[in-house]
């Protein structure tokens, strides 16, 4: 693609991601679990038949039940060179979604704080998908995550007094409703009927995630096995990828973004790292 050419390091990292995705695909096939390409990975599949030229990760989605089942299977059956990461297997891991990491590698994103102590292998993201339910809790959760995403990670100014003050605000005041919301989320996870309402016409990203991405159920199911859809490999995609991507990125998703928005998210990638 014009104006962006991935370097050899990123190309090598992508190969590892793709190999990990193939392992996940095979496990899902073996145990009849449902997954599909998600987010920028789905966009890359439809628009580029592979990685978006400046993309540096892989995203897949799973309905909640299969997400939970996969967690137990992955912990037992992933190859020895892969690590299933969530907040149970890696207590210092800050993200609310699971990842499959490649051991012996290192991948650091730009937003990540210094001196963190969790596994940093090259990864693929696994995002849980829930029934979309309306109500005050959904609205309140959006408010909480608005502040957490707007005033945390890499979004506050760097090297200034304002940065310091906003950092304190984000990690004290905002942490209070977040801790409460986490408890509510954990409670709701125990009530499967909240996530598996067959009458709901919509699905969305799980309660853990700040971006709901509300999508019609009929645009997801039945899934399609896209032949050679991503880097020459066949993976599952939503039933109506056009509607799905429109809900996710807007109607102009096939139009390339301006040059200033074509950038990678990683800061450091290393191989052959001792653990």
Automatic annotation (TrEMBL):
InterPro entries in UniProt? LicD/FKTN/FKRP_NTP_transf, LPS_cholinephosphotransferase
Q: What is this protein called?
A: PpgC
The LicD/FKTN/FKRP nucleotidyltransferase domain is annotated at 28-250
Question: Which biological process terms from the Gene Ontology are attached to this UniProt entry?
Answer: glycoprotein metabolic process
What is the scientific name of the source organism? Pasteurella multocida
């Amino acid at each position: 693609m014009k104006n962006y050419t991935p370097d050899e390091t990123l190309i090598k990292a992508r190969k590892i991601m793709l190999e990990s995705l193939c392992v996940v695909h095979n496990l899902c096939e073996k145990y009849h679990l449902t997954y599909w390409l998600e987010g920028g990975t789905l966009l890359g599949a439809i628009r580029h038949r592979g990685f978006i030229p400046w993309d540096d990760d892989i995203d897949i989605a799973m309905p909640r039940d299969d997400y939970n089942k996969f967690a137990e299977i992955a912990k037992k059956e992933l190859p020895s060179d892969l690590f299933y990461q969530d907040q149970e297997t890696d207590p210092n891991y800050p993200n609310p979604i699971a990842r499959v990491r490649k051991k012996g590698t290192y991948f650091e994103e730009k937003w990540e704080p210094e001196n963190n102590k969790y596994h940093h292998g090259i990864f693929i993201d696994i995002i849980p998908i829930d029934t979309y339910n309306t109500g005050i809790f959904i609205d309140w959760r959006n408010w909480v995550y608005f502040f957490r995403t707007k005033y945390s990670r890499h979004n506050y100014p760097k090297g200034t007094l304002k940065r310091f003050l906003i950092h304190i605000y984000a990690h004290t005041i905002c942490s209070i409703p977040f801790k409460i919301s986490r408890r509510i989320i954990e409670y709701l996870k125990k009530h499967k009927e909240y996530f598996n309402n067959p009458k709901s016409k919509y699905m969305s990203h799980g309660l853990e995630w700040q971006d709901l991405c509300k999508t019609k159920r009929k645009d997801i199911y039945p899934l399609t096995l896209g032949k050679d859809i991503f880097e020459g490999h066949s993976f599952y995609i939503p039933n109506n990828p056009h509607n799905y991507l429109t809900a996710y990125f807007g109607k102009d998703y096939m139009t390339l973004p301006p040059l200033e928005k074509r950038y990678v998210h990683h800061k450091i990638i290393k191989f052959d790292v001792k653990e």
